[in-house]
């Protein structure tokens, strides 16, 4: 009866198409919304992932997220370096500063100061110039993804408005700097442009504070348990030592909650999910109900309940499988196509898995609910149809 | 049919159907309907029995009990000596697949399957490979005069043709009892007569019984006997309807 089950499904082209397209749209809704939410929240920790050389981030235990500057005492670095199991530890400065461009345009930006000697903690990908150029006097690197912000809005005399470029002189918190190169970073949740310079230069540019060290980046020696080192750092310094993943999780949790994204976006996602799943279930339920008189006739003619269930499950597997595949493909295509438009689309492997499971489970349940109606053979249904 | 029945009857018996004191009610309390109020009925092997009576008198209910698709509340029902009510559910399903041919008023042909595939269903349900079953289906269609329409879909055929397909489907697996609920109700007189001709001349056989529920007095002459029902009982049995309704 398996072939007959398939023919029942695909025999009416229009109905079949409607069913598959319906499930495809439901699947698209589910997977696309979830991927956008995932991508969006995943951007919160993008800078942490970009700064990938470090195993551990040492920070004030009250630090809430990546842009939350709660500086540490300068001695922290030495204390961390003296801990067994630490391969290396470097200082990092990070904070918001005012930039003035050559034509007087003022921009708020984030400045990252990385270890002078090793340049560990540098951005992931250079575009122009090289990282080593940071050793030159007064040098900074600019962020090519923020060139729209780093724009001379008035322009220099005889030039007209233009973006900052390598070679330009800029003013960082009233300290003169020269752009020696540019880098590309992963798209981030936060929007202000990012500049990189050395740690010591960052300290001279930043307003004077009693404590200046923002983070200590730590590499753990090979073969040493991460958790042991984390505990040792906390014991020695009183500060938190988080892995990149932990720091990301903390930041995500804080930002999602603080901005209300979780609640606002969450409702949309949950609704999209519920609606998508219900639509798919409803479609399959209807499909089976429309065929109920034929199933009832088959049951009368001696089809066992098992046979009927198998027929319906084959129909579900094909319709839901194909529909979900198309929907997932559509979601993926939309993600790629709109990536340049700023769509924060990122499909974690769990999304298709969860989506497929939800669609399949609901379709199976819907189909089974409707098919069980013929298990109790109503003579009226059987003979009248 | 050309091919011999795969499972010969275990107990040859003179009676195809023997019902004693069958009762059946639907619903509870104020909604309770007593559909069968003690039905006694015997159908002889080789006989075409018609079951007639006003709407709601219990014809479909009785037919369902005979065919093993409905449990009665009380009484016994033996079909070719087997106690249908006593069978367990799975056993009864297999017995139906083997022993009963169904003809429905609304044909219940699956619209997306060809005529031959529709007719093949009872054989497939008994485990016959699909291709072999479809071949059997084609033969059965030839027997009802539709050899040239084996690949047509039901919607491409007239109501009369569809009911002939349904008859082929009811006979393809060589059942010993064929039950028909209002087989001609949706057909005009000529097509109704053709369907009854088929039931009379192709379906009826010495080792098989037919029970046909109908309202249609024009087809009464096709019956060997007519059982009149009213309010859940058989009130009268006419033994020679061809003679009594001949003008
Ligand atoms: N599933 C059911 N639930 C409740 N009542 C039912 C059910 N099936 C049948 N009945 C009732 O039982 C009685 C007998 O029904 P049945 O279908 O056997 O009548 P019938 O003689 O076949 O009528 P018709 O000629 O209209 O087909 C009717 O009163 C009907 O309403
Ligand atoms: Mg009826």
What would your notes on this structure say?
The complex is a heterodimer of chains A (385) and B (247). In chain A, the strands form two sheets. In chain A, strands 1, 2, 3, 4, 5, 8, 9, 10, 11 and 12 form a ten-stranded mixed sheet that branches. Chain A is α+β, with helices and mostly antiparallel strands and 385 residues long. Chain A has helices at residues 2-10, 13-42, 46-50, 75-81, 199-205, 226-237, 244-259, 261-290, 292-300, 305-337, 350-371, 379-384; strands spanning 56-59, 86-100, 106-114, 125-128, 139-143, 151-156, 160-163, 169-172, 175-184, 194-198, 215-220, 240-243. Chain A folds into two domains: 2-43 and 260-383, no CATH class; 73-238, no CATH class. Chain B has seven helices and ten strands. By secondary structure, chain B is α/β, with parallel strands linked by helices. The model of chain B is unreliable at 8-12 (pLDDT under 50). The chains are: A alpha+beta (385), B alpha/beta (247). Chain A binds chain B through residues 1, 3-4, 7-8, 10-12, 291, 293-294, 296-304, 307, 377, 379-380, 382-385, and chain B through 60-61, 63-64, 67, 69-70, 90, 93-98, 100, 102, 104-106, 108, 110-113, 117, 121-122, 124-126, 130, 169, 181-182.
Blueprint of the fold:
The complex is a heterodimer of chains A (385) and B (247).
Chain A: H1 2-10, H2 13-42, H3 46-50, E1 56-59, H4 75-81, E2 86-100, E3 106-114, E4 125-128, E5 139-143, E6 151-156, E7 160-163, E8 169-172, E9 175-184, E10 194-198, H5 199-205, E11 215-220, H6 226-237, E12 240-243, H7 244-259, H8 261-290, H9 292-300, H10 305-337, H11 350-371, H12 379-384
Parallel strand pairs in A: 3-10, 5-9
Antiparallel strand pairs in A: 1-11, 1-12, 2-3, 2-8, 2-11, 4-9, 6-7, 8-9
Helix pairs in contact in A: 1-10, 2-8, 2-10, 2-11, 8-11, 10-11
Chain B: E1 15-26, E2 33-44, E3 48-52, H1 59-67, E4 74-79, E5 82-83, H2 89-99, E6 100-103, H3 115-125, H4 130-143, H5 159-171, E7 177-181, H6 189-203, E8 209-213, E9 225-230, E10 233-238, H7 241-245
Parallel strand pairs in B: 3-8, 3-9, 6-7, 7-8
Antiparallel strand pairs in B: 1-2, 1-4, 4-5, 9-10
Helix pairs in contact in B: 3-4, 3-5, 4-5, 5-6
The structure holds adenosine-5'-triphosphate and magnesium ion.
Magnesium ion binds next to α1 of chain B.
């Amino acid at each position: 009866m398996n072939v007959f089950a398939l023919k029942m499904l695909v025999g009416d082209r229009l109905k079949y198409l409607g069913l598959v397209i319906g499930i495809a749209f439901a699947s698209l809704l589910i997977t696309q919304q979830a991927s956008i939410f995932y991508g969006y929240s995943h951007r919160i920790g993008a800078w942490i992932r970009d700064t990938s050389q470090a195993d551990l981030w040492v920070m004030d235990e009250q630090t809430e997220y990546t842009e939350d500057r709660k500086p540490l005492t300068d001695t922290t670095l030495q204390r961390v370096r003296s801990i067994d199991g630490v391969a290396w530890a470097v200082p990092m400065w990070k904070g918001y500063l005012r930039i003035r461009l050559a034509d007087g345009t003022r921009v708020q930006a984030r400045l990252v100061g990385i270890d002078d000697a090793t340049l560990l903690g540098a951005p992931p990908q250079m575009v122009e110039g090289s990282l080593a150029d940071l050793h030159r006097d007064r040098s900074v690197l600019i962020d090519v993804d923020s060139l729209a912000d780093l724009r001379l809005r008035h322009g220099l005399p005889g030039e007209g408005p233009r973006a900052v470029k390598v070679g330009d002189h800029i003013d960082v918190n009233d300290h003169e700097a020269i752009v020696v190169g540019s880098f590309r970073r992963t798209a981030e949740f936060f929007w202000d442009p990012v500049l990189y310079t050395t740690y010591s230069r960052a300290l001279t540019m930043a307003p004077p504070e009693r404590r200046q060290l923002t983070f200590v980046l730590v590499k753990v020696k090979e073969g040493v348990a991460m958790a042991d080192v984390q505990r040792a750092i906390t014991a020695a310094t009183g500060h938190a030592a988080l892995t990149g993943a932990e720091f990301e999780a903390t930041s995500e949790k804080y930002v999602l909650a603080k901005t209300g994204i979780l609640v606002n976006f969450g409702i949309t996602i949950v609704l999209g999910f519920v609606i998508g799943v219900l639509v798919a279930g409803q479609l399959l339920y209807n499909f089976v109900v429309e065929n109920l008189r034929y199933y009832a006739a088959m049951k009368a003619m001696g089809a066992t309940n098992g046979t009927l269930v198998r027929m319906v499950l084959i129909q579900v597997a094909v319709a839901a499988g194909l529909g979900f595949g198309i929907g997932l493909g559509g979601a993926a295509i939309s993600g790629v196509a709109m990536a340049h438009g700023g769509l924060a689309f990122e499909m974690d492997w769990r999304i298709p898995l969860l989506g497929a499971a939800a669609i399949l489970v609901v379709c199976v349940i819907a189909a089974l609910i409707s098919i069980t109606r013929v298990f109790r053979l109503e003579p009226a249904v059987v003979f009248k149809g | 049919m050309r091919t011999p029945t795969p499972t010969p009857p275990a107990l040859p018996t003179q009676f195809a159907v023997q019902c004693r004191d069958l009762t059946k009610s639907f619903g509870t309390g104020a909604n309770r309907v007593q559909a069968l109020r003690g039905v006694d009925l015997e159908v002889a092997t080789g006989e075409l029995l018609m079951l007639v009576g006003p709407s709601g008198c219990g014809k479909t209910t009785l037919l369902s009990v005979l065919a093993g698709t409905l449990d009665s509340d009380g009484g016994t029902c033996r079909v070719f000596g087997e106690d249908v009510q006593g069978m367990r559910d799975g056993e009864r399903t297999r017995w139906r697949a083997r022993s009963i041919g169904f003809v429905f008023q609304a044909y219940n042909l699956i619209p997306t399957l060809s005529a031959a595939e529709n007719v093949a269903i009872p054989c497939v349900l008994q485990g016959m490979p699909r291709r072999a079953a479809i071949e059997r289906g084609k033969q059965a269609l030839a027997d009802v005069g539709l050899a040239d329409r084996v690949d047509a879909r039901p919607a491409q055929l007239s109501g009369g043709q569809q009911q002939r397909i349904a008859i082929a489907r009811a006979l393809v697996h060589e059942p010993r009892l064929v039950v028909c609920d209002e087989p001609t109700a949706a057909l005009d007189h000529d097509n109704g007569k053709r369907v009854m001709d088929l039931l009379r001349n192709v379906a009826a056989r010495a080792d098989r019984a037919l029970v046909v529920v109908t309202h249609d007095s024009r087809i009464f002459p096709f019956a060997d006997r007519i059982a009149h029902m009213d309010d859940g009982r058989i009130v009268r049995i006419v033994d020679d309807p061809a003679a009594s309704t001949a003008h």
